[in-house]
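Severity: low
Component: inverse-folding endpoint
Summary: output formatting inconsistent between runs
Steps to reproduce: submit the following structure tokens with default settings.
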């Protein structure tokens, strides 16, 4: 808490509004901080103001030092409230539509079904530093379904990995941003687009982090049609074998692949049971709901000894119809 000598109630109200945390929760936390002698307020000499105690100041200095050392580079965005996150994702959807329309080609539906997951990870969850994309301790994100590159590019530009102006050059000859992610692009961990390969790469990253004791987590987004690739299941077995609990896979379960509905092309169900049988913790959510995505990520943080897969039910082109309807109102 940034206590200084501000009124406790106005400080808590401001935090409550900005970060969408109930005031009652904050009040309870303030009481706990006071009991721990980290802050003081409501004293006889100063009945209304909140102040850091010497111990509180000492701990704050330690936290700041940690921050400056790059241990926690979440930036302001990670503490973003849900409403702000949803608003930013809505704006990003528009950016993606314009990018693909300008380019005259690109996988629009695939990008829109995936954007809530990608944006929630980068804007509200992952530890990363756009100013230092190679930061060793960063969390990693790999886009298995590389054809959803417009969504990844929009989010990376939003984070500041490269200028937003690059987005209008999507798929242009000589441009930075081509149809599939390339490792030369700032913020892109691995070139992808050939379906089925990313989980194997992610295994290597997650295993390496475990062996070196690094705190980082590795996130992968796979398409549901991508699960047709046998390599995915080889990699799934490997991840379970090595107990990669620092690895989280999202499956963008939009029900479609290039040539039709997944259940018609090559049935995937029962998918929960399949992943479970491969030794994974399995969660199922609405993948177009940032709130559910964040909740599932919280759950995955607590899983020990095995990797987590989040089967994220989405709609291909998600958000478009809703926005059109809202504008007509
Ligand atoms: C190895 C490989 N085979 C084929 C393709 C061609 N391809 C591009 S997108 C796509 C469909 C992928 O479907 P899905 O993973 O469900 O993604 P989404 O429905 O979200 O677009 C295919 C087959 C490819 N990129 N890589």
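Observed output (run 2 of 3):
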């Amino acid at each position: 808490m940034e206590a200084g000598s501000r009124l406790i109630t106005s400080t808590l109200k401001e935090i409550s509004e900005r970060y969408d945390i109930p005031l009652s929760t904050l009040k309870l936390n303030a009481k706990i901080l006071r009991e721990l002698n980290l802050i003081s307020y409501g004293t006889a000499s100063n009945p209304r103001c909140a102040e850091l105690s010497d111990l509180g100041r000492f701990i704050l200095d330690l936290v700041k030092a940690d921050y400056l050392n790059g241990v926690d580079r979440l930036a302001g965005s990670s503490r973003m409230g849900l409403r702000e996150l949803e608003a930013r994702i809505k704006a990003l959807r528009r950016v993606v539509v314009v990018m693909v329309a300008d380019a005259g080609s690109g996988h629009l539906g695939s990008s829109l079904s995936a954007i809530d997951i990608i944006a929630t990870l980068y804007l509200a969850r992952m530890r990363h530093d756009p100013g230092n994309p190679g930061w060793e301790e960063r969390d990693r994100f790999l886009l298995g379904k590389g054809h959803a590159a417009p969504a990844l590019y929009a989010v990376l530009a939003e984070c500041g990995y490269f200028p937003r102006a690059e987005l209008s050059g999507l798929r242009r000859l000589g441009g930075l941003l081509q149809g599939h992610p390339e490792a030369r692009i700032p913020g892109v961990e691995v070139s992808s687009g050939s379906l089925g390969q990313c989980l194997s790469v992610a295994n290597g990253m997650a295993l390496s982090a475990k062996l070196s004791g690094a705190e980082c987590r590795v996130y992968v987004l796979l398409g549901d049609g991508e699960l047709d690739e046998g390599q995915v299941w080889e990699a799934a077995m490997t991840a379970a074998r090595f107990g990669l609990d620092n690895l989280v896979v999202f499956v963008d379960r939009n029900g479609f692949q290039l040539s039709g509905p997944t259940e018609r092309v090559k049935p995937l169900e029962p998918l929960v049971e399949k992943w479970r049988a491969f030794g994974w913790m399995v969660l199922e959510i609405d993948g177009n709901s940032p709130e559910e995505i964040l909740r599932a990520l919280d759950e995955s943080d607590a899983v020990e000894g095995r990797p987590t897969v989040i089967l994220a039910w989405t709609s291909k082109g998600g958000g478009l119809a809703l926005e059109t309807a809202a504008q007509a109102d």
